[in-house]
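Researcher: Sequence recovery benchmark, item below. Answer with residues only.
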């Protein structure tokens, strides 16, 4: 319960700050240490960041391509940020967000391997320029020449490498914060002006997928890879650290076949002469992961959700996992209070904090959504004291529960019941779709197991069996 010395006006200011702090955005810089959930619920050797660091230290000179699997909202971006902070002294960290560097989120399925490679080369060159002032004019001209071959004939457009570089959305304390103070920033945001019409001075913001298509032949694609490798060679020669690519957001591609071909097409990404860690969707697990292994990718890095249910008694909360999610809420509340100049006070009672932790299913992004909704309810409740109580938590849970339940068909409900019973991903394509949408969650003890999202358990209990 909040301190009696905190007025309602002060509490409302803190609630508003809490809603801002709980927006579903990746943690960067020192926020990783202050706000992230600790991944100590698995054996140390299986903690994702530790595994990735070990692989890079052992095989880094072989330029490995490592895939970090996990569903949307499981914390992959946070783990990439942890890699950044752990390895910044060893590598030139080049964190690339291709969605905001030229690919619209709604058109992400149109991302091409060539477009991703082009962005990677530009990002590495830009990072070297930012950190060491290295100008790679000759190498960039070669890259531009190779990229122009990928513009479909008849478009009447030209590729402006300078504009594309200015539109990059990059993360990584290594080059965006050379002082090492831990703050991260973006260089350019959103879509970029890529086209200049040959007939006039009109520029248009477009999706990079509309400009860079698949290479018309293997030679053109190889020329693009060779140009990017020329940039990497120059950085290795003239810089102080080799580049390490961290590629985020590719897990947002909805079709697993497209994700698979994006990574494996003609061995282009594997041929890049630098190590890379790529955020990948859970849909590429299973037999597709084995196929990725065959294409030279390392796929043993899986990010699971925090367990909030016991494996042996799946309707009984796992107290360790619940406590971990509650700690996330405490950290966010403390940060919100600090932001508005309040002492670290309780703005949420223990029962509501526990309820939100359990109903999140152990999904960080869902926990943040629940507390945001509860904070909104508390602000609108003029009869409320200065904290989030159970009535606000119940309102938030009801809102988020309805948002999930409305999409469940009879077939979905049958599949969810079977998954709940067996703790395995059954149901064929329906099961995969439920997993992709976080209606089914993946946990782990000493082995992976599956369970419906906490917000759907009431639906399964109160609908008739078909």
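Model:
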């Amino acid at each position: 319960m909040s301190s009696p010395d905190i007025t309602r006006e002060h509490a409302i200011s803190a609630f508003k700050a809490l809603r801002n702090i709980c927006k579903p955005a990746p943690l960067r810089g020192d926020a990783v240490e202050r706000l992230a959930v600790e991944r100590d619920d698995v054996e140390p050797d299986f903690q994702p960041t530790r595994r990735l660091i070990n692989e890079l230290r052992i095989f880094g000179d072989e330029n490995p391509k490592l895939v970090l699997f996990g569903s949307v909202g499981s914390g992959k971006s946070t783990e990439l940020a942890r890699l950044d902070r752990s390895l910044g002294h060893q590598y030139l960290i080049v964190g690339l967000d291709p969605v905001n560097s030229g690919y619209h989120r709604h058109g992400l399925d149109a991302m091409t391997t060539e477009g991703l490679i082009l962005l990677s080369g530009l990002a590495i060159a830009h990072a070297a320029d930012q950190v060491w002032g290295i100008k790679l004019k000759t190498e960039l001209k070669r890259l531009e020449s190779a990229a122009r071959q990928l513009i479909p004939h008849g478009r009447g457009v030209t590729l402006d490498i300078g504009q594309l570089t200015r539109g990059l959305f990059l993360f990584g304390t290594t080059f965006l914060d050379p002082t090492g103070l831990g703050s991260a920033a973006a260089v350019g945001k959103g879509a970029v002006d890529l086209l200049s019409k040959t007939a006039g001075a009109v520029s248009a913001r477009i999706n990079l997928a509309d400009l860079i298509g698949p290479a018309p032949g293997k030679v053109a694609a190889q020329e693009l890879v060779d140009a990017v490798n020329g940039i990497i060679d120059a950085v290795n020669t003239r810089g102080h650290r080799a580049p390490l690519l961290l590629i985020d957001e590719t897990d947002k591609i909805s079709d697993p076949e497209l994700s698979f071909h994006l990574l494996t097409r003609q061995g282009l990404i594997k041929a890049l002469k630098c190590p890379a860690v790529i955020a990948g969707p859970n849909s590429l697990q299973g037999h597709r992961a084995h196929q990725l292994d065959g294409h030279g990718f390392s796929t043993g890095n899986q990010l699971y959700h925090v367990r909030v249910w016991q494996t042996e008694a799946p309707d009984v909360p796992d107290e360790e996992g619940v406590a971990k999610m509650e700690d996330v809420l405490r950290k966010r509340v403390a940060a919100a209070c600090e932001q508005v100049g309040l002492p670290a006070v309780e703005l949420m009672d223990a029962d509501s904090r526990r309820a939100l932790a359990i109903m999140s299913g152990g999904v960080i992004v869902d926990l943040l959504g629940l507390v945001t909704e509860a904070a909104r309810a508390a602000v609108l409740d003029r009869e409320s004291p200065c904290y989030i109580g159970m009535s606000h938590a119940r309102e938030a849970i009801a809102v988020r529960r309805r948002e999930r339940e409305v999409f469940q068909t009879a077939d979905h409900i049958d599949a969810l019941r079977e998954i709940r019973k067996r703790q395995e991903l059954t149901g064929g394509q329906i099961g995969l779709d439920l997993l992709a949408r976080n209606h089914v969650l993946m946990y782990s003890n000493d082995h992976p197991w599956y369970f419906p999202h906490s917000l759907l358990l009431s639906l399964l209990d109160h609908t008739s069996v078909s």
